[in-house]
Every structure is written in structure tokens, then in C-alpha cells.
Design a protein that fits this description.
The chain is α+β, with helices and mostly antiparallel strands and about 375 residues long. About 30% of the residues lie in helices and about 30% in strands. Helix 1 runs parallel beside helix 7. The structure holds flavin-adenine dinucleotide (FAD). The site of flavin-adenine dinucleotide has 43 residues, from helix 1, strand 2, helix 2, strand 14 and strand 18.
Length: about 375
């Protein structure tokens, strides 16, 4: 596509869709984002906001280049977005301390340690219980040790997507309210997007509808095996001094964010598209928090949120052109890491749309891999 020649429609105003509008705008291509609720109103606005590239699905492995690129882009955004929009995205470097309570957890934590220590830009070390308690004296005395990582970061997801939206709009992107329920095609090419209230013509469409991505299987004729994985987070007024690092254990985390509250989570629930917070999840998160940091028994609940991760059947993103339908692209499946991966996914897809190739390998994420 020639920059500026034809408009791209992006379906979905989550981090992946909005970041795509941003990078298209940067390349001089106008886009329209169609969002049926409001920008950042689902997982992209209510995630924890940890930016930790050294672990997760497909890491080490094909997801690592995307994760590394995600952190690099976030580091640039930390300076550029507040300048461009006046919105402070609350990005900051934030060490993490991941606790192990059993020998099995120690083995699991030490497995990728050598690889993690080889990666540029971080300091990664195994610390015994005494050293862990020097780093954060309030962690449980029951721990056997932990992995301490410097060089990782965090952002406030809602402020980030707000700033990214404003920056994209300044470069010509438009955000429209609408519920997309199909595509218009002609001769094997996309010519428009069909919404409940009419059609929007376009030369290309990016489908970035997160956990709802399977809806687009019927629009594209492509199997898009994505399901929602529910997660919940509590924001607490916690007694004592703020925590200086993110404490983690077995997929749970806790950290004082820049609003002064202790954010803690999470759950992994198969609950369909239900996004309601539940008492059972609240109790589970509190139990995990107290296991990590027993002194927080009297923490006071301020906010409780729930949202859905877009999880692919093989756990890694689905990113690239829809086979057999010219001008249609999918960008989804970031799972537990979409705030980190979203900007990298969006930049790679923008390069794919405009130049026919991304700067790093995205073939492992091909939508064609599901046959
Ligand atoms: C509890 C929790 C904690 C998390 N913590 C972290 C973290 O610490 N770090 C990290 O990197 N990631 C984290 N994540 C993951 C991250 O939030 C997600 O991977 C990411 O937000 C997914 O972004 P998305 O743009 O793909 O989807 P979404 O944010 O879900 O956006 C998709 C959008 O598409 C819209 N839409 C759907 N269908 C249509 C349609 N037919 N027409 C128009 N619009 C439509 C929806 O309304 C929605 O706004 C967390 C997730 C959860 C649930």
C-alpha cells in the first residue's frame, strides 16, 4: 500500500488496535478505529501493566523478540507520549522479585535463569531467602528464595492507552463508535467493513478485537482459535511503606503503583465472556497476597476489576495477513502480555501492511498456521 493512498479500518480499540493506528499515523497513513464500547474499556485499560519480557508464553522462544521490542517501544513512549499529549503514562523501571516456596518452584525458577542472564539490558539473579528479605523485608519467611530482576518496567495501562489514542488522533486517526459484524469483499479483496449502522469503505482492515476474535472467523473464513481467559485485580490501601519492587509468586503479583495503591492479582478463569468481579476471586487473590506478604491482612479494598485476556490455542499471538483475503489482517492473542506485546505487534503489522515485511520474524505468529 502507498502511504496516504487509502484508509485502513481497525476494528477494536484495545492496545493492539490503537497502537496500530499510532504506527500507521506515524507512517502518514490515516486510519479509522471502530470500537463498540469505548477505547481501553476492557483488558487494555484494566491490566496490571507489568512490562516483563523475560518470561511468559513463548519465552524463551518466538515471542521474545516481540517482547523485547515491546519494552523498547514502551521506553520511547515514556518520553514521547507525555510530551505529545500531556498525559503521564506512569512508566517506570520497576524491579521484580519472584518468590519460590517449594523445591519444585525453585527448580522451575532456575530453569530459564541462565538464558535470562544472557539477555542484554537486565540484571537477573537467584537470591536466597535472607537476600530476598533484605530486598523486601515484608515477604513471607516461608520462602526458599527468589529471582530478582532489574531492567523490567511498568506502566499504567489506562493512561497509556489514553495517551496513545490522543497521539494517534493528532496524526490523523479517527475513533468511531460502532459494532462491526462483517466485511465487504470483492474479487478476494476487502473493500469495506460492515457495522450495525452501515458500511465503511476501506483498502485494508486490521481485526484487533482481543478475546472476541473468534467472531471474525465467520467474517474471514479463517479459523481464529482465541478464547477469553478471565483475570481479576484488586487495588488496596495497604498499611506501611510503599513497595519498591513487584513481588510475584505462581502467576500472582503485588506492587505499589504510582497512584499510591497496592495493585494485586490475579486469577485465570474459564468463565466465557463474563467480566464481572466475583467474591471468590477476591478471596483467592487476597489469599495469594497474604501468602507472599503476610503483613497485609488489614489492607483495605478500594477497587476490584475483572477483564478478559485473548488467549490463542497455542498460547502465542496471531499476527499477519488473512490467507486468501487480500487487505485483511489479524492482530490478537497477546494473552497475559498484551500491554507489553501490543506496541511491538502493532509496529510489526504496520510494517507488514506498508512494506510487506516486519523488522523481526513474525512467521511463527502467522494466522495461516491453524490450517
Ligand atoms: C487481570 C489482567 C492483568 C493483565 N496484566 C497484564 C500485564 O501486567 N502486562 C501485560 O503486558 N499484559 C497484561 N494483561 C494482558 C493484556 O491486558 C491483554 O493481552 C491486552 O489488553 C489485549 O489487548 P487487545 O487489544 O488484544 O484486546 P482488548 O483490550 O480486549 O481490546 C479489544 C477491543 O475490541 C472491541 N471489540 C470487540 N469486538 C468488536 C466488534 N465486533 N466491533 C467493534 N469493536 C469490537 C472490544 O470492545 C475491545 O475494546 C492482563 C490482562 C488481565 C485480564
Amino acid at each position: 500500500m502507498n502511504a496516504g493512498s487509502s484508509e485502513v479500518v481497525i476494528v477494536g480499540g484495545g492496545v493492539v488496535g490503537i497502537a496500530t493506528a499510532y504506527f500507521l499515523g506515524l507512517a502518514g497513513v490515516r486510519s479509522t478505529v471502530i470500537e463498540r464500547d469505548s477505547v481501553g474499556s476492557h483488558a487494555s485499560g484494566f491490566a496490571y501493566g507489568g512490562l516483563t519480557p523475560l518470561s511468559g508464553a513463548g519465552i524463551p522462544g518466538p515471542v521474545y523478540p516481540l517482547a523485547k521490542e515491546g519494552l523498547r517501544l514502551h521506553s520511547e513512549f515514556a518520553k514521547s507520549l507525555p510530551e505529545e499529549t500531556g498525559v503521564a503514562t506512569e512508566f517506570r523501571l520497576r524491579p521484580s522479585l519472584s518468590l519460590s516456596f517449594t523445591e519444585d518452584e525453585v527448580d522451575e525458577a532456575k530453569g530459564p535463569l541462565a538464558w535470562q542472564q544472557e539477555q542484554d539490558g537486565y540484571r537477573v539473579e537467584w537470591v536466597d531467602a535472607a537476600k530476598a528479605m533484605e530486598i523486601e523485608p515484608r515477604v513471607s519467611e516461608e520462602i526458599l528464595g527468589g529471582v530478582y530482576v532489574e531492567g523490567v518496567a511498568e506502566v499504567e495501562p489506562y493512561k497509556f492507552i489514553l495517551a496513545l489514542t490522543q497521539a494517534a488522533e493528532k496524526m490523523g486517526a479517527t475513533v468511531r463508535h460502532g459494532n462491526v459484524n462483517g466485511l465487504r469483499t470483492s474479487g478476494g479483496k476487502v473493500t469495506g467493513v460492515v457495522t450495525e449502522t452501515g458500511e465503511i469503505p476501506c483498502g485494508a482492515v486490521v481485526i484487533a478485537i482481543g478475546p472476541w476474535s473468534a467472531d471474525a472467523s465467520s467474517w474471514t473464513g479463517l479459523d481464529i482459535p482465541i478464547r477469553p481467559l478471565k483475570g481479576q485485580i484488586l487495588r488496596l490501601k495497604a498499611p506501611g511503606a510503599p513497595f519498591d519492587c513487584s513481588i510475584g509468586w505462581a502467576g500472582n503479583y503485588a506492587n505499589t503503583k504510582m497512584d499510591g495503591l497496592l495493585w494485586t492479582g490475579t486469577t485465570e478463569e474459564e468463565a466465557g465472556f463474563d467480566e464481572n468481579p466475583t467474591a471468590a476471586a477476591r478471596d483467592q487473590i487476597m489469599a495469594s497476597l497474604l501468602k507472599m506478604i503476610p503483613s497485609l491482612l488489614d489492607a483495605e479494598l478500594v477497587q476490584h476489576t475483572a477483564c478478559l485476556r485473548p488467549l490463542s490455542v497455542d498460547g502465542i499471538p496471531i499476527l499477519g495477513p488473512v490467507p486468501g483475503l487480500e487487505g485483511a489482517y489479524i492482530a490478537t492473542g497477546a494473552g497475559r502480555k498484551g500491554i507489553l506485546l501490543g506496541p511491538g505487534m502493532a509496529k510489526a503489522l504496520t510494517d507488514q501492511i506498508l512494506k510487506g515485511a516486519a523488522d523481526f520474524p513474525i512467521e511463527p505468529f502467522s494466522p495461516a498456521r491453524f490450517g
